[in-house]
Amino acid sequence: MPDRHSPVSDQSGQHGQSTPSPTAPAVPGPANPVRRLRPAQLLFEPQADEPEPERFFDLESIDDPAELLRRSTELTLAFRAAAERATDFQAIAAAQLADTRRFDALSPAEIAARVDWTPDYAARMVEYGQSLLKQHRNGER
Hints:
Radius of gyration: 28 Å
Helix content: 40-55%
Shape: extended
Largest sheet: none
Distance between the termini: 68 Å
Order of helices and strands: HHH
Strand content: under 5%
């Protein structure tokens, strides 16, 4: 019996695939690729009375100054720790890119150009990254 379902368009825009029969479950595989349907088109634009105010971790909604100080300090410390960790990863990446054992090793000046550092700062980051890698190899930290 021919399938009377209309063709479906997947995300790639390909046509001609029919929807699976309700009695035969479609199992993803080479014969039955997973099809993703496009979201339904909006027929109207929802009204926004006024733009939503920006929120920064709901700090603006805290009325108690002691609680505001506690929460903002907590966020400051968390962001500082995240920035320090990200800097460590930058240094490790710089050291790995500058590793002379790599056939495509970069100079500190080339690394600096990639991330908008000065060549001097890049050289210090490479050294710092090398010390972090050495600590990691020795099981420290």
